[in-house]
């Protein structure tokens, strides 16, 4: 804070000439009205805040009793005053009376009326009544009487205390310490470099003003506010999340979940949230892929159901339509893989691929001996588009209608199923097997070598696809696989083992991994 000493002098002029001469004869009372070039309010402010004000008055007189009138001058308020410069207020004296040297022992020299030029002068110093608003000069009715009057300018200096005048030039608060003024500022402001002005403090620039979210600076203060979805706490700083779901579920038609600063509507299964993000609308599952139903799809509020055409029943998955078991034919066809022998016959049975079941309207299959049945087209939609291979070994036509269907379709269908089941992996397909007395996954080729139990050198043994029409006839070879089977004895920590040679070439190196997959 800056300290300063107030040294100010104010001088206010008026309309009277420096020396005003008054002569008789004429009215015994003469009045000189005084006007100042500032307003009464300005004069009032000056004399009430100044430390000291004074105004010089002087009168030179001849053959007069000047101060014998009722009053000698009027105050700024218009009061009648009876004292002259240098004498106490309303003491009816001039300065000479204080030193008891007035002419003729009177209270003023200009009351002598003795044919000699006399004078009284001095400063009026009572700020409570200054400045002079009018002068009253008495006893000018004879031709020999005359007077010369002088009224000085109003002079004010200093202040009653350092803060009285203009608040010590401080923008906010002023504290007077003797003749010094010390400026200070209200909360939210700091004192400017000139030590008089006050500058706003931006509270938001430091730690966000302590606000959780938004801090807005104001003149002399700051204000915290919160983002949408939050409420300002009573402490004025902390933002508390609004749980919009407590009021009418946030206008959600089903489920409302509160989130930080917001909320979210959601729908149960079978519904989707509408464009208003509040209303749940039913999803017509039947419009998308027939709801996954084999036959008929019926939409309902929030769900759907599948049903089947006559002659079918809905499977446990709720989507698949199965022919009633009573509709299954007893005629089946089992697709197998065998090692083609070097002589006539079927060769060693190596692997059961699947059993085909010819229903009234579609083809079924079972890979586990009939424990479970599936629709071939459901599992292999491209079944009938699979490349048809030339087949061999067709038996003579049978008289049974169902057997005719088996003989007409089974050879081709077994080739198709073999290609689809083996896929690109062929003999490398993983199957369940037993190694060292424990069940494990191994390759189909290794599984076949384990069943043959003998070494087969390159170029290997042909693998043939066969079908067994069961009640309709005997098992028949239908087509050979392109990949040949080679089995090689390889040493191991537990003795020689028979390993599948996937490349069917001499000299390959094998490991236990070839065997156990």
TrEMBL record:
- The answer to whether keyword Coiled coil applies is no
Domain of life, per the record?
Eukaryota
List UniProt keywords, sorted A-Z: Calcium, Disulfide bond, EGF-like domain, Glycoprotein, Repeat, Secreted, Signal
One GO cellular-component annotation of the UniProt record comes to:
extracellular region
**Localized where?**
Secreted
Q: Which residues cross the membrane?
A: none
Q: Does the keyword Cytoplasm apply?
A: no
Report a single Gene Ontology molecular function: calcium ion binding
Q: What name is this protein filed under?
A: Signal peptide, CUB and EGF-like domain-containing protein 2
